[in-house]
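INFO  loader      accepted 1 record
INFO  loader      residues=505
INFO  predictor   begin
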Amino acid sequence: MRWEGQELAVADGAALPGLQRLSGLVRSVRTPEFEGITFHEVTSKSALNKVPAAAQVPFRWTVNPYRGCSHACTYCLSGYAPISMADGSTVPLARVRPGDAVLGTRREGLSRRLVRTQVLDHWRTSKPAYRVELDGGTSIVAGGDHRFLTPDGWKHVAAAAEGEPPRPHLTVRDRLTGLRRGVVGAAVRSDDALAVSYVRPMDVELPMFDLTTGTGDFIAHGVVSHNCFARNTHTYLDLDAGDDFDRQVIVKVNVADVLRREVARHTWRREHVAMGTNTDPYQRAEGRYRLMPGVIEALAGSGTPFSILTKGTLLRRDLPLLRRAAEDVQVGIGVSLALLDERLHRSVEPGTPTPKARLDLIRAVREAGLPCTVLLAPILPGLTDSEEHLSALVAAVAEAGATGISYIPLHLRPGAREWYLGWLESTRPDLLPLYRRLYHRGSYSDQRYRDWLRARVEPHLRRHRLRDDDEELLDDRRRPLHGKRWGPRLAPEPPPSEPGQDSLF
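INFO  predictor   done
INFO  writer      dumping tokens
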């Protein structure tokens, strides 16, 4: 995309502060066609992103041309790092100030308990970034020298550099130590949700925040943290996980060239590559940047099978190219469609194509001779899970020619949780008690609700022959997304917990 005359100076106050220190920033751009959105063009060092084995999905690689998303979906945001304050509230790390009272920990006998402590200093730094993922869905970006508390003591995020003395560091066998109740005197402990899924370098230096307290530690994202810390996902670029995720979009302008070099290496094994698993590759900006044709050509030209999940009808532009690619490699297309109600769509997915437009996209994909699986996601408790709505939605998708359907209930990970519940409070406050019951254990809905939803949806799938009667009833951790044999599947959930005593409804 070339928007000459509309470029923002990098040092401009509207430019992305966290990228000002990165050599990969080309420029920041605004255009009247995308009012209120700034695009930050960067050159990336890599295009293929490896998926950790702990994710338990049948693909190991993804490509994400964009970071951030102009779709502005209420529920598609990643989380920010909340700091547990002494008064029971949480405050984003960037807003904590010296003199604030936060929760720290102090050893008492064999246990470690929460205590009130004061913030002595708070400053900004820049370090090579690592991503730490936990089984419960928490995603953390931190420096390699940063330390977390485990049952075996403090451990650094990364191993020592070559030539330096060895040091304890996180591995997938570790569990972090965190809190269940954020009140003074409560004990901290480790559980399965705090188990480390993976730690990996991000191959980039990012701005981060340091915090010093009277106890030498503090609680961020519910885990005991020491020394340097940074907000996760979009927030490590000095952005929040709300409006900024929607309005500050990072564009990897050289992604196709980098990908072409990567898949040409003799070490590349032509494994399946899934796109749309993080941010939508066919969000509106793709109409100007046109990154996906180069990505498709690079993958198909190297003999690499791939799949695309999108809400964007812009995919129709590339159907001829995708059809040609399918002659050489396996190509899977998935369209995400969560609801049919136009008014609800305008409220929770204001930047996405309408349900009707996406149904037309499904028809166009099928007319091009390509398979098209539809992802009914996320299904919103109390809003889109009624018998009437699900019956109409499945029927509409079947009539459009879908070759398969997957579905998944709403996930409320940190950051997305606060954003979505804030929207719910302003639009449907009567549903807040229901959501507190369904999500009282964390990011995932109660197991009883998932069982109830499965029993409600499955008959409709069979009625429209979108489910084989002899097919194993896979749970939503293993359900195929783009095909039974080779397509990517939904992200795993932690092992379901025992149902509580409270009623769901």
